[in-house]
Each structure stands twice: as C-alpha cells, then as structure tokens.
C-alpha cells in the first residue's frame, strides 16, 4: 500500500464509522474539538483501524499521543512500515 | 397526595411514527400484522407473523446518542420527543431536576446480544467488540438513553415485567408525582422485535400459527378461532404531570390517572389466574376510590391466547358484570410487549377525548367461554368518563390503571 492508499483507507473507514463529512477530513483536524469524537469513539477508532489494516495496536503507548487526523495517518504509516521490515 | 394528569403522548407503533397514524389506523380498523419470510426459515418456529415498525429515520437522533441505542431506544426517544412536544415542554423542564423517566423493555437488545455472541463464539476473541455494545444490552438501556439525549436529571428507573412493563411504568410514575417526588415523568415502554419473543410463545403453544398466509386475520382476541399471540414492536410514552404544575403553566390536559395497582400471582409463572386478575382490578379501583359501576369501559389485555382471554373475561365479568363495554387492541397491533400498556393507554386517552370506542379487530364469533362480557364489534360514538386498562405478564405480574376524563373541579 502506498502512503496515500493508507490515508484514503483511514479516512473512509472513519467517515463510515463516525459519520464524518469528507470535507472535514483534514490532517490538522483535532479529533475531539474538530471531529467531535470522544473517549468512547477512540476505543472504537482502534477497533476500526485494527480491522482495516489487520494489525494490533491497542497496547501501543504512542496511541496516547494522537491528537489530530494527521497523527493517525502518520501512526498507521509508521506501523505498516515497521511491520513490513520485520 | 397530588392529582396526576397526562399532558403529552408519543407513539412509534407498527403503523409507523406518530400519534396521528397510530390512532387513525386504529379507528379505521387496520391490521399492523404482516407475514415474515425470515421467520419461515427458522427451523421449529411455526408462527411467521409479526407487527414491525417501518417509516422511521434513526438519523433524526445525533450519532453521539444513537451509537449506544438499539432500535428500542430509538423508538422510545422518538416517542418521548413527540410527548414533550405535545406537552409544550422544553429543555429546561428536562434538565431542571423536576423531570423523571420510567421506561422499560422486556429485556435488553436481543439482536445486539446475538451479534456479540456470534462474534465471540466464531472468533474466540473480544478484539472486535465496540465500546457501546453493553449500553444496548443492559436492562435499563432505554431509560438511560432517553435521559442522556434529553438531559434529564431527575429519577430514572426502568421497570421490567414483560407485558406489564409499561402499565407498571405509568403506575410508578403516577405514584412518584402523587407523592411529590417529581413534577413530570416520561413513562412507558418499548421493545424491538426478535424471533426469541415469537419462539417463546410458540414453544408454550401460545403463538398464532394458523394465519401465516392471512396475517391481517390474527390475532383474534376473544374469538372462537383465536390461536395465540402475535408479537410486535414499538414504543408508547405518556408525559405525566402534577395537576398543579399543568394548571400553573396552562397545559392542555388530556386526561387524569386516578388509580393503579400491580400484584404478583405466584400460582404459576406462565398461566394467568382469574382471582389474581380480579384482585388487581379491584385494588386499582380502590386506589381510585371508585366503585366498579363507575367504570364505563374496560381495555382488556386479551392477547388472543386460549386460556388468557377466558380468564380475563371471567374476572371482568365478576367485577363489572356483562354490560360494561370491553375491547382489546391486540387484534390491530399484535402484542407490542413492553410497549403494549403505554400504546394501548394512549389509544384509551384518545377514545376518552374523542368520545368513541374502538372495537376488537378480528372478533367475528365470540368464543362461548368469553361470552360473559359485552364485546364491541363496531366503532361506537359514546361518552367515556372513566376506564380501566389491564396488562398481565409472564412471570405472574398483573397490573391495572384507572384513567378518567379530566374534569376541572
């Protein structure tokens, strides 16, 4: 998968799960303040990403650092690269 | 003790969304029952008829609140909104602490439970479990979801007694207001259809199985050809309010609740008992401080089971004689389970206000064993001042409400 394919899959998965508008899916969008997600949604966000990308990330400490949609893009791209190098 | 009145009502029924289609369909004698091919595919299930809700848009409810709701909570929320609108109550009334909630369901969302266990048993894993699964399964799911979306800060309770659920919810709400614990109560019940319900009655030989290809002809309360319950879904909500509050804010008062009783019948967990039903109705009359001859109409539970209709008819006959009009709405709606007490009470209030009596749909030939009461066969124009409404549940939980036309005295 290219980085753009990863970003597209993340965005479409989150749009579907959280009923988000495509035009709001900007990298700088804050998950809580701009996309209006909350702590319950973050639990489901992990489930959605694990299903979409077939990896396990729930125990990753770096998830706690995620604040924006762009943070998710970078997290998943790095995780995919990490898995590909194993 | 404070007087308690009804100032708002809301319905999501197998006829669709809203009070208008609900009552007009009852008046027109429409059946809400259809045949479901999905049921015919279930091995061992003999009853393939049900009354399902159509024509609602769950997306009327914001995702933040909808995510923890199964269908039954969605039905209850839409019905609550209609009741609040009719009562002309706003957000401040909900959030100020004077508003409580008493809304129950038979059980939590069976479909959600089924999906959870399907996933768990097929994968052996909880890794795909969403955060909101439990909020749809817990027994107080509907009451909690309604309180969340409406911002209600008063008492929230979730009575659960199967077919007696919403009759009890209204009764408990009535008592809370009468005792001065709340000024407003959103009361009622809600259920979403699942084959578990039909299967439960079928295994007890109490589900309708002979009309799968003629769904509008079943159920048939008190009819000699009745063959059992038809399960349905929906939600009925009544907004109860203290008379003082209603008068103070100039509310349109729809009717008054003057009596309530609920009793346990420990004689059998599945079979109704005439003496217990009669005792329940008598206690409701005592609570209302009226005599049996003051009752102008009985809205029967009458689900169309062989035994239940006979026993209820005997109890009504013993208490009210053979000249008090009786009808059941199960022939129209099927058995809306936890919603039945509230939806049928809403119809009763409408009949009181419009001055009419709706007959029992599909009652064509009275069963000899049910001939000891005065049945209604046609829509009648008449004045009803005081009526009693019955609901009886598996588990031996009986309940009765006494509702009176509001008289400003």
A few lines on this structure:
The complex is a heterodimer of chains A (86) and B (409). Chain A is an all-alpha fold and 86 residues long. Chain A has one domain: ACP-like (Non-ribosomal Peptide Synthetase Peptidyl Carrier Protein, Chain A).
Summary tags:
heterodimer; A: mainly alpha; Non-ribosomal Peptide Synthetase Peptidyl Carrier Protein, Chain A; 3 helices; 0% strand; globular; B: alpha/beta; two-stranded antiparallel sheet
Residues in helix, % of chain B: 25-40%
Structural class of chain B: alpha/beta
Helical segment count of chain B: 15
- The stretches of 5 or more residues of chain A where confidence is low (pLDDT under 50) are none
Secondary structure: helix percent of chain A: 55-70%
> What name does the CATH topology of chain A carry?
Non-ribosomal Peptide Synthetase Peptidyl Carrier Protein, Chain A
Helix/sheet category of chain A: mainly alpha
Task: Sketch the topology of chain A as an H/E string, one letter per element.
Answer: HHH
Main sheet record of chain A: none
Q: Biggest interface and its residues per chain?
A: A-B, 13 and 9 residues
Rounded mean pLDDT score of chain A? 95
Structural account:
- The complex is a heterodimer of chains A (86) and B (409).
- Chain A is 56% helix and 0% strand.
- In chain A, helix 1 crosses helix 2 and helix 1 packs across helix 3.
- Chain A has helices at 3-18, 39-53, 69-85.
- Chain A has one domain: ACP-like (Non-ribosomal Peptide Synthetase Peptidyl Carrier Protein, Chain A).
- Chain B is built from 15 helices and 16 strands.
- By secondary structure, chain B is an alpha/beta fold.
- In chain B, helix 4 (71-87) packs across helix 8 and helix 9 (165-178) crosses helix 15.
- Chain A binds chain B through residues 18-19, 36, 38, 40-41, 43-44, 47, 50-51, 56, 58, and chain B through 63-64, 67, 127-132.
